[in-house]
Amino acid sequence: MTPAITRYFDSVEQARSVKYERVRHRGFSLRILSFYEEVDGLVDALNA
After folding, report:
1. Is residue 6 domain-resident?
2. What would the pLDDT profile of 1-48 be if each residue is shown by its tens digit?
């Protein structure tokens, strides 16, 4: 089983900042981060 963590942010800028921090400073792989700025496809991705 793969754990999934979903976070919601007040703004796109805040979400982008967190993504950048995770990738650049904490070494997260872009392959394990999904980033949705629009709701299209989000529900399907969360239910997959």
Report:
1. no
2. 456 666 778 888 888 888 888 888 888 777 776 666 666 777 777 777
Q: Kindly state whether residue 23 falls inside one of the protein's structural domains.
A: yes
User: Rounded to two decimals, what is the model's pTM?
Assistant: 0.54
Domain count, the chain: 1
Task: Print the domain residue range for 41.
Answer: 12-47
Exposed e or buried b per residue across 1-22, where buried means at least 16 C-beta atoms within 10 angstroms of its C-beta: eeeeeeeeeeeeeebeeebeee
Give yes or no for a contact between 19 and 28, defined as CB atoms under 8 angstroms apart.
no
